[in-house]
Specification:
Layout: H1 2-15, E1 60-64, E2 80-81, E3 83-87, E4 100-106, H2 113-116, E5 118-119, E6 125-128, E7 131-136, E8 141-147, E9 151-158, E10 161-169, E11 175-180, E12 185-190, E13 203-209, E14 215-220, E15 224-225, E16 230-233, E17 236-244, E18 248-257, H3 261-268, H4 276-291, E19 294-297, H5 301-314, E20 319-320, E21 323-324, E22 330-333, E23 340-342, E24 346-347, E25 349-350, H6 351-354, H7 358-365, H8 367-384, E26 390-391, H9 404-413, H10 421-432, H11 446-452, H12 464-484, H13 489-498, E27 506-507, E28 512-513, H14 540-543, H15 551-558, H16 561-573, H17 588-595, H18 621-635, H19 651-661, E29 672-673, E30 681-685, E31 691-695, E32 705-711, E33 714-716, E34 721-722, H20 723-726, E35 730-737
Parallel strand pairs: 31-35
Antiparallel strand pairs: 1-3, 2-5, 3-4, 4-10, 6-7, 7-8, 8-9, 9-18, 10-17, 11-12, 11-16, 12-13, 13-18, 14-15, 14-17, 19-30, 20-24, 21-22, 22-23, 25-26, 27-28, 29-34, 30-31, 32-33, 32-35
Helix pairs in contact: 5-19, 7-8, 8-10, 9-10, 9-12, 10-12, 12-13
């Protein structure tokens, strides 16, 4: 098996690699959408599903192995497919909305998901971002899917039979279907969701077949009937039948809308008169266009597949939640107030995860797309009164922090324009000084934070230390944006002062961050290995480093570079011990840390993912270079078990993409990026027409250390690169070696930005 896989990988590598220059001709062919799908609630290897979609597309499609309503809708270990589902699920923990399913069957007429399910094999499955194909053994049917942004083309290849059917399941919790036999069409809507929607939420769909129906049946809450053409109730569905020749193909064009049935028909025009192969080719072209913005050379076949698979994941969320009306105007259904309004809207992302590297990556490579996302945040604020921190599709009460501040500030500070930044600044100030309608909107505990400088441990507000640390960083982001917008000095300085609130939780006795009570005394007893409680999905060893904006200040609290580096080293040398008593059981994030063989470093979850890069602040950049390569080598593979925890809407993938290129944004809302490259060469084609060329010809498994750097022909000693300078175009030459250069990047001026060192 290993020899076969290696041979296949090498063949793909040769076929997809250009001749002389070694550039990837069609990077989409290196993407594995099944990466991360071998997951379950107790252990996440990504918790992904194969998203058959266009970049940032409104609708995704997926094969469904799990039962309706399960967040684990596709698991690599499964052996049956129940249907092919339109999905908007950002993660299994958030679950889905706007969902319905198609399923081809043969033989006995049936509808229920277990009855219609079919055995399948991964050996007879093809999964690409732009195309999915699988053989359904129990029905002797091949299903194929090719997507557009709001529609999809299905092709079912049937055997010779007078009992060929296509099932349309609009799901329970309220749905409607109507058969239009004269038009070979099914229309209807589904309302099933997992929250974050107004009462009038509906996803309207239309299915257009290219073959007349030989029979029709409506599913009415557990009953199949033949004498009606429509039904509205708890669980509606339809089954249409055909007589087919051997290998006859039945094509179905499908589209949906959150606005109206008429808009669903408009969205179907994305396919127009294109046949299946044309839709497939256009989707392939769309992916190659975006993926080719970054060309890599060198590395192993697995490293190239991992890179482009991670880049694919980085270009899915947040998804478009807007549509184009008959006049071509941008309109959206608002999940915040239930109205249909003009303008952009994007959704399905949690800023607690994605502020760290996903949004900085978009600012570097796809700033015009992120500008639309920012315009969508303006609309979200106007329509709901708050910026979302986790949207799916509207406000969701999940995670902590007020990290919309980072997302908004970073975009503007890195050149984002064309949207109402002053309204967004108003939204940030509003969110920073008020508790929202949900605990995860605005700032829970804000009355304590603004008065005491921290959220106390003893006020029955969980994850209080994590909230304090993230609020302090978010205040820094507001400070940075306020300066750029020339807001009053008194106002700007308030957020600068609050950005130092992280200091209030530093315990000099332990050298770690620790919960603190209202009376100013630290919470006791204190176990730095206790997950949860004062922290979010991590322990004190993980969250102590959440001072993105003032690493020098944290280092000073720890006693200087030497104890700071010793503490960083300790994270890796500690055994993977933990205290799970707060949760009552071992949560999957803990288990993923335990089995990774990286000590107490928990790369599978977001709070500590930047920690590896902090050696750059303490004059030992070679340790960053070592651990970045180790993390990429050990914890990422282009396989179904290829991640080391939840992929989380592009965040964990963007970490890999950034790190493989040779830099990472430790502190969004500044413009500095730092690290060491994985490939011999990478070319970034920026939106403004400039190119960033990253050369490291001596790069190899052994040569992971930077001996020297030349930027635009000039020797460069700093441990960071400027995003804004890269946007002007640049050539960066890395001289790589097998042993660390312990004299380069060791001076104080070589360290990246820290608030404590900066000129205010």
């Amino acid at each position: 098996m290993n020899k076969v896989f290696t041979t296949f990988a090498a063949l793909v590598f040769l076929l997809c690699t250009g001749a002389a220059k070694g550039q990837i001709a069609e990077p989409v062919e290196l993407v594995n959408p099944l990466m991360g799908t071998d997951s379950k609630p107790s252990l996440s290897n990504g918790n992904t599903y194969p998203a058959i979609a266009l970049p940032w597309g409104m609708n995704f499609w997926m094969p469904q192995t799990g039962k309706m309503g399960s967040g684990w809708a596709y698991q690599y270990s499964a052996d049956k497919i129940r249907g092919f589902k339109q999905t908007h699920q950002p993660s299994p923990w958030m679950n889905d909305y706007g969902q319905f399913a198609l399923m081809p069957i043969t033989g006995r007429l049936r509808f229920e998901e277990d009855d219609r399910a079919s055995w399948f094999s991964h050996k007879a499955e093809v999964a690409k971002p732009y195309y999915y194909q699988v053989y359904l053994a129990d029905h002797d049917v091949v299903t194929e899917i090719a997507p557009t942004e709001r529609a999809a083309s299905f092709r079912f290849t049937f055997p010779r039979t007078d009992s060929a059917y296509v099932v349309l399941d609009a799901l329970d919790k309220g749905s409607y279907v109507k058969l239009l036999p004269q038009e070979n069409k099914i229309v209807g809507y589904t309302t099933r969701n997992s929250g974050g929607v107004p009462e009038n939420f509906r996803n309207y769909f239309v299915l257009q077949f290219d073959k007349p129906f030989a029979s029709t049946n409506i599913y009415k809450d557990k009953e199949l009937v033949t004498n009606v053409l429509e039904f509205q109730g708890n669980h509606a569905g339809a089954v249409v039948g055909f007589k087919t020749r051997k290998d006859e193909q039945v094509n179905v064009r499908v589209a949906s809308s959150f606005i109206s049935p008429e808009q669903a028909e408009l969205n179907l025009k994305e396919i127009g008169n294109d046949d299946f192969e044309a839709v497939k080719q256009k989707a392939k072209t769309a992916w190659n266009k975006e993926l080719s913005r970054i060309q890599i050379e060198g590395g192993t076949p697995d490293q190239q597949r991992t890179f482009y698979s991670c880049l694919y994941r980085s270009l899915l969320f947040p998804r478009k939640f807007y549509e184009l009306d008959a006049a071509g105007n941008v309109v959206h259904y608002s999940p915040y107030n239930g109205q249909v309004l003009s303008g952009y809207l994007y959704t399905d992302t949690g800023f607690w995860d994605t502020f760290r590297s996903l949004f900085p990556f978009l600012n570097l490579m796809y700033p015009s797309v992120n500008a639309q996302m920012q315009a969508g945040l303006v609309n979200a604020y106007k329509e709901g009164g708050w910026l979302p921190e986790w949207a799916s599709p509207g406000y969701r009460n999940v995670m902590v922090g007020n990290n919309s501040a980072s997302v908004v500030a970073d975009a503007y500070l890195k050149g984002g324009r064309g949207y109402d930044i002053n309204t967004l600044y108003e939204a940030l100030v509003h969110g920073a000084n008020n508790a929202g309608p949900l605990e995860a909107v605005g700032r829970a505990g804000v009355q304590y934070y603004n008065k005491l400088g921290y959220v106390p441990y003893d006020v029955k507000l969980n994850e209080n230390a994590a909230r304090t640390l993230e609020y302090a960083y978010d205040d820094f982001a507001i400070y940075q944006l306020g300066k750029a917008l020339h807001k009053p000095a008194k106002e700007v300085n308030l957020y600068a002062k609050r950005s130092q609130n992280y200091r209030n939780l530093f315990d000099k006795q332990t050298g770690l961050m620790r919960g603190k009570n209202q009376d100013g005394k630290f919470q006791a007893p204190f176990n730095p290995f206790k997950w949860g409680d004062a922290f979010t999905e991590g322990n004190s060893w993980h969250y102590t480093w959440s001072v993105f904006h003032d690493v020098q200040g944290l280092m000073n609290l720890m006693g200087g570079p030497k104890p700071f580096v010793a503490a960083l080293d300790t994270v890796f040398t500690l055994a993977p011990v933990f205290d799970a008593s707060y949760y009552g059981s071992v949560i999957h994030e803990i288990r993923e840390m335990q089995i990774a063989h990286t000590g107490n470093y928990a790369h599978g979850n977001q709070p500590i993912q930047h920690m590896i890069y902090l050696y750059n602040y303490a004059g030992q950049p070679w340790k960053t270079q070592y651990w970045v390569r180790e993390t990429m080598n050990r914890l990422y593979l282009p396989t179904p078990d290829g991640y080391c925890g939840d992929e989380d809407n592009g965040q964990t993938s963007a970490w890999y993409v950034f790190s493989a290129l040779g830099f990472y944004p430790v502190c969004p809302a500044t413009d500095q990026l730092l690290g060491a490259p994985l490939f011999k060469k990478a070319t970034l084609r920026l939106e403004n027409g400039k190119e960033v060329v990253l050369n490291a010809p001596a790069n190899s498994e052994a040569n992971r250390y930077i001996r020297s750097v030349i930027v635009n022909g000039q020797s460069y000693a700093h441990n960071w690169l400027s995003n804004n300078e890269l946007q002007k175009g640049a050539t960066v030459d890395f001289d790589m070696a097998a042993t660390p250069n312990t004299s380069r990047g060791t001076k104080a001026e070589d360290a990246p930005y820290s608030f404590s060192k900066a000129k205010k």
